[in-house]
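If you are new to this repository, start here. Below is one unmodified record pulled from the training split, so you can see the exact layout before writing a loader.
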Amino acid sequence: IPGRLYDPLRASVLDPIARSESDDVGEATPIHPSEWTRALLATQVSDLERRRAQRQRNAAIYDEALPTGLHRPPTQETVCLFRYPVLVPYGERDALCRRLRQQGVGCSTMYAYTVSPDGVCPTAERLAAEVLNLPIHASLDTDDVASIADTVTNCWSSV
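And here is the target side for that same chain:
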């Protein structure tokens, strides 16, 4: 995640955790966010519940409207749904992703790889090759998500 807000977090917390050797972590450096950053974080935290509820409504639309053949994530009220991943049958994901992007749908194949050597985790490799993330963020209203679901259905039928 780029930006001034997350750079200190990434440098102090995420990068050390991602290192392969625990000896590399070293001492934690306290983060002293600016007044502006604290105000922004307070605003974001106060809005979390509304955003989560909107993502849940968006997921319910996808759950109902997406075509069969695209496996959906289990959605419960407690799930935040930062992404809405669907599994596209092996070998068809990239074509569907291209068609959706041509239609203006901002989908992604994030995590389309595994960190293990080839053949060591075949299930993870298969899932990495099949996952497609659909937009679900809280700024999308129910009409936007219904329109995206229609686009996915139309593009899926031509794959």
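Two things worth knowing about this chain: DSSP finds six helices and two strands in the chain. The longest helix spans residues 48-65.
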